[in-house]
Every structure is written in structure tokens, then in C-alpha cells.
Write a structure and sequence with these properties.
The protein has about 575 residues and is α+β, with helices and mostly antiparallel strands. About 20% of the residues lie in helices and about 30% in strands. It contains ten helices and 26 strands. Strands 1, 2, 5, 6, 7, 8, 9, 10, 11, 12 and 13 form an eleven-stranded mixed sheet that branches. A five-stranded antiparallel sheet has the order 3-4-26-25-24. A four-stranded antiparallel sheet has the order 18-19-20-23, with no helix packed on it. Helix 1 (about 1-15) packs across helix 4 (about 45-85).
């Protein structure tokens, strides 16, 4: 039929040769349908030869289709084998798996490279930190603050209700609050150390009054460009809370709790650079702030009653009052040399300590300080762990000292004590008393010389890492006197940094301990002083019910940034 139609088509056109002119005509569409577009078919034999060639092409096409069918059969057979033996990977799977492996390897290399870059950038940047110092004329604008009662507290906390404290799993916390929105969310500063103190004003401009303050340290973040601002402290006035033991107060009453940020400066009124301020302690009118990022390791001391200054005017506008920091949010830079802070606290002096002081607290029961070193041991988990291997890390050490020891020539060669726990963020020690016969904690006031009294020491240690994983609070019986001398409680003496500082190691120094789980970012610890611990165990003893009721203060640096208090008795080891 194709030959007949083709012949008739050529006869009707009276032209055997198809020219370009005809091919370009719209009426030739039917020729193109038969593939005659530019062919020269002059005879019947030419037509038959053309059609035979078409048939050969069709056979070759059919052969290709058969080959495709064979491939389909092979694929079906392979799929059936894959179903029967699912552990045997297909070629496609093997290719995909290889690609994923390569991709994961490249991702790992990228992460390590970025981490290494920022590590060395961070380490090398220390030498580039430049403190901000005021011009001489700016010092004329500083007025000493005569009383803490005169400090203008310009921010209000966000109270945590009793229900909120329970929902956040803070283990019997009976009092707590959060910062205002700006301070709670800022990335430029992070809270670290915590302490508290009481103070009685002597009248004058204000009536005599007993004040109660909580004090928190914050450090400026390097990655936010705030490292040269060093450290600020927050002075929180909790005086007007109705109960000294803070059995939870009315929420409206707590909304009246105010606080103020105060910038720490050195003896020349220059800002501190790259100061972490991982802890803080109060003793006799002075606060102590550790410096763990500069060698030799030091403790900075500030007199909080005589060294706070109010900045009254800017150096650039001496005739105008300084527009101080905003009510909400952060201390914004502005033109003032003190970054718009209204108050600065000048350093009094510094002393060197034998180990890296990642945190610091004051043991009021023994009139001694304890410092300790943070050492990460979480490995690939990127979290705190109480694994046995991490527990035995050499640098998980603590060091107790009295202020009178600081000027001793042998102080810098003193031995630390450990190991304790990895990722330590804070430690606080103390003591309480029990009836030797029964083991009961003494809470009455009628004990006398005939009673058999036993002193018990305890230690609380907080450990955490990062903003995701939970934190741990470790509680166990411990007496710092175990860290004195070279008795049976002390084993190997090593020099962990090859710097002449020794660390005496005893794998069993902790013994049994209790663990409390807290939200991420648990930091420094502080135990309030007690007025009821006897100085002489052989004499009359006042019961230490108030010892058990005194507050253990804690804070978190991530998430909601909570400050909260728990009675000591709820945290003592069982």
C-alpha cells in the first residue's frame, strides 16, 4: 500500500524529483509523512529500494526493542533476587551508599576545619584584646558611691512561681527568678558566678536597714565583639522578700525585686579583657573574681562598699548628664568610655593561685576559699558524663586555701586535690552536725557538753556542657582536710602541666555520691553563711536548724537563665 500510494502521489504531481522549492511548500506535508522530503525517486525501482531500506531499519529497531525487553527481564530477575536476599545491596544502593560515605567524610572534614580555625582564632586573638581605658578628663566625672542603698536599680526581674519552679525540675527550689527579656536573651553576655551577702546601713541619707543582695557575674562574649568589655556584675536586691528563708513568697511581691549592672574595671579604670569570671565569692565587704584565661592564674579583689563609682557626665559632653543604659535590653555603647554604664567597680588588688581557677566559692563554715578547674571529657557526645574514665581525669581537681596562705612563700607550690568530676562548673563545701549515737542531724537548741556530737563535711559539685544536655549536681560527704598532708587519703603526686604545680590523686576520694539532674547550663554554686555553727564542739552548741534551712544558690547560663535557691537539707547526701 505504501508503494502504491507513493507511486500515485508522484504521478499526480507529474514530478519525480522533489526539489527544495516543493519541500518548502505547505502542501508537501503528506510527502514528509512518508519520509520523502529530499529524496530523488525517479523510477519504480527507486521506490522499492527505498521501502526495502525502511523495512531493514524497522527490523533493527525491533531487535533493539527485544534487547530492551531482555534488560527488563534481567532487572525483574534482579529485583526478585533482592527481595529474596534483602541483605545483598543493589548496584544503585551501593552507589548511593558510597556517595553518602563521601559526603559524610567531607562534612566531617569541614566541621573539623571550621572548629580548628575558630580555636586558633580564639587562642591567638588573646594577644589582640585591647582594654578600653578612659581619658584623664573622664576620671573627673566619677563620684564615689557612699552607700549601696544609693544605687539606682533600674531593672526588674521576672519571678518564678512555685508551680514554675516545680515544672522546671529544679529539685525542691523554693525561690527563683529570671532576668528581664533583654538580659535573658542577649548573646553578648553570659551569666557565670553567683554569691550573696547581707549588709546593714548605718542611716544617714536613708534609715538604717538590713539589706540582702544576690550578686551575679557576666562575661562579654568574644564572638559578639564584647571581649574588651570584660565583666559586669548584677546587684540584685532581695531585701524586701518577706521571709528570710524564702518559703515561697507572693508573686506580686517578687515583681518588686530590682537589679542593676555594674561594670568591673581595673585599678586604672580600664576594662578587663577576655575575663571569664566563672565564679564569684563574697567575704567581709569584698568580692573575689577568678581569672582563668591569663597566666599566671589570678583572683581579682574588689571592695564593693568603697570602690563603686557613679559616672555623672560623658567625656565628650562635660556639660550634659550622661544618658545611661536603657531600662530594658543591654548596655548599649553610645559615646561614653564606660559603654553607657552608670556605675563602675574598681579593682583593689590581685593575687596568684596555684591552679587554673575556672570557678570560685567561699566556705563560710571553715573561712576558706575553694577553686577548681573545668576539664572537658565528653568526647564525641559533646555532653557532660559521669563515666569512670572521665571521673579519673587528672585535671578534675579542687584547691582549698585561706587568705592568710596567699602570702606564704610555699603557696604557689601547694598541691591540689582530686580527681572529682569532669566539666565542673562550680563547687561549694560546708559542714553540719549529727548525733554520734543516732546519726540524726542536730536541729534542737538543748545540746550540751555531755552530748556526743560529730561533725560532717559535705561537698556539692555542678557539672555541665553546652546548651542542650542536662546538667548534674553531685552531692557527697567530704572533708577538705582529706586534701591536707600526705596521709592515706592521698596517693600519687604529679605535675600535670609541667609547671611545677602538683596534683595529688586518689581514685577513691569521692566515694559514693548522689546525683541531681538539672536543666542545661548549670554554673556556679553558693551556700549562704550560717550564724549557728559552734566554734567549739566541746562547748554548748546552738542547734543548726538554720544551718539546714540556709540557701544554696544556683544559676543557669543557657535557655531561660534562671536564678534559684534550694534549702541545703534537700541536697545533702543520703
Amino acid at each position: 500500500f505504501r508503494a502504491f500510494d507513493t507511486y500515485n502521489m508522484m504521478q499526480d504531481s507529474n514530478e519525480i524529483q522533489m526539489t527544495d522549492e516543493i519541500n518548502n511548500d505547505d502542501s508537501i506535508d503528506e510527502h514528509e509523512e512518508f519520509g520523502l522530503g529530499e529524496l530523488e525517486l525517479t523510477t519504480w525501482d527507486d521506490i522499492n529500494a527505498y521501502l526495502e531500506k525502511e523495512d531493514d531499519d524497522d527490523e533493527e529497531y525491533d531487535d533493539n526493542v527485544d534487547d530492551d525487553d531482555d534488560d527488563d527481564d534481567e532487572m525483574i530477575q534482579l529485583n526478585e533476587e533482592q527481595q529474596q536476599n534483602p541483605t545483598k545491596p543493589s548496584n544503585c544502593f551501593r552507589v548511593t551508599k558510597t556517595c553518602l560515605q563521601h559526603l559524610c567524610l567531607l562534612l566531617l572534614i569541614a566541621i573539623v576545619s571550621i572548629g580548628t580555625y575558630y580555636y586558633y582564632k580564639r587562642r591567638n586573638k588573646t594577644s589582640d584584646f585591647i582594654p578600653v581605658c578612659p581619658p584623664k578628663d573622664a576620671l573627673q566625672n566619677l563620684i564615689p558611691v557612699s552607700s549601696l542603698a544609693n544605687i539606682n536599680l533600674n531593672r526588674i526581674v521576672q519571678p518564678l512561681s512555685h508551680r514554675a519552679l516545680q515544672s522546671k525540675k529544679l529539685h525542691d527550689a523554693h525561690f527563683g527568678f529570671m532576668w528581664n527579656d533583654g538580659d535573658g536573651k542577649t548573646n553578648k553576655f553570659r551569666p557565670q558566678g553567683i554569691t550573696s551577702f547581707t549588709w546593714s546601713s548605718l542611716g544617714g541619707a536613708t534609715e538604717s536597714k538590713d539589706f540582702h543582695f544576690v550578686l551575679v557575674t557576666w562575661y562579654g562574649r568574644t564572638d559578639e565583639g564584647y571581649d574588651n568589655r570584660g565583666v559586669r556584675i548584677s546587684l540584685v536586691d532581695i531585701t524586701d522578700i518577706s521571709s528570710s528563708s524564702f518559703s515561697h513568697t507572693d508573686e506580686e511581691e517578687m515583681k518588686q525585686i530590682k537589679y542593676r549592672h555594674i561594670l568591673l574595671v581595673d585599678e586604672n579604670f580600664c576594662t578587663f579583657t577576655d575575663l571569664h569570671a566563672g565564679g564569684v565569692a563574697y567575704r567581709d565587704g569584698k568580692i573575689y573574681v577568678p581569672d582563668s584565661r591569663h597566666h599566671p592564674y589570678t583572683i581579682h579583689v574588689f571592695d564593693i562598699f568603697s570602690s563603686i563609682y557613679e559616672v555623672t557626665k560623658t567625656s565628650s559632653s562635660p556639660n550634659e548628664d550622661l544618658q545611661h543604659e536603657q531600662q530594658e535590653g543591654e548596655e548599649e555603647g553610645g559615646e561614653d568610655v564606660f559603654f553607657n554604664y552608670r556605675y563602675v567597680l574598681q579593682k583593689e588588688y590581685t593575687f596568684i593561685v596555684p591552679i587554673k581557677p575556672s570557678f570560685l566559692s567561699y566556705d563560710s563554715d571553715r573561712d576558706s576559699f575553694v577553686i577548681g578547674t573545668y576539664k572537658y571529657c565528653g568526647g564525641d557526645l559533646m555532653k557532660h558524663t559521669d563515666s569512670e574514665d572521665c571521673r579519673k581525669e587528672v585535671l578534675n581537681h579542687l584547691f582549698w586555701f585561706d587568705l592568710g596562705d596567699v602570702n606564704n612563700p610555699d603557696f604557689q607550690s601547694s598541691s591540689s586535690c582530686g580527681p572529682f568530676f569532669s566539666e565542673m562548673q562550680g563547687a561549694a563545701s560546708g559542714r553540719y552536725f549529727v548525733d554520734s549515737a543516732t546519726g540524726d542531724i542536730i536541729t534542737d537548741t538543748d545540746y550540751n557538753e555531755s552530748d556526743d556530737i560529730e561533725e560532717k563535711g559535705f561537698l556539692l559539685v555542678s557539672s555541665s556542657y553546652g546548651p542542650v544536655w542536662s546538667s548534674h549536681l553531685h552531692s557527697f560527704n567530704f572533708d577538705p582536710r582529706q586534701c591536707e598532708g600526705s596521709g592515706s587519703s592521698r596517693n600519687d603526686v604529679i605535675d600535670d602541666n609541667n609547671d611545677g604545680i602538683t596534683n595529688q590523686i586518689n581514685d577513691d576520694i569521692v566515694g559514693d555520691y548522689d546525683v541531681f539532674t538539672y536543666p542545661s547550663g548549670l554554673e556556679d554554686l553558693h551556700i549562704e553563711p550560717s550564724l549557728y555553727i559552734p566554734n567549739n564542739l566541746d562547748g554548748n552548741i546552738i542547734g543548726n536548724d538554720s544551718v539546714m534551712k540556709r540557701n544554696v544558690w544556683m544559676l543557669t547560663e543557657h535557655g531561660e537563665r534562671m536564678i534559684f535557691a534550694t534549702h541545703l537539707e534537700a541536697l545533702l547526701p543520703n
